[in-house]
Amino acid sequence: MNRPGTATGVNFFTGDLGGKRLELLCAMVPSAHVVGLLVNPRFGTEVVEQHRQAVAAAAKALGRELVVQEAATDAEIDAGFAELVKAGIAGLVVQNDPFFDSRRSQILALSSRHRLPGIFHIREYPADGGLMSYGASLSDTYRQLGVYTGKILRGAKPDDLPVLRPTRFELVINTRTAKTMGIAVPQSILVAADELIE
Question: Which CA distances in Å does 12 have to 1, 43, 167?
Answer without folding.
Answer: 13, 15, 10
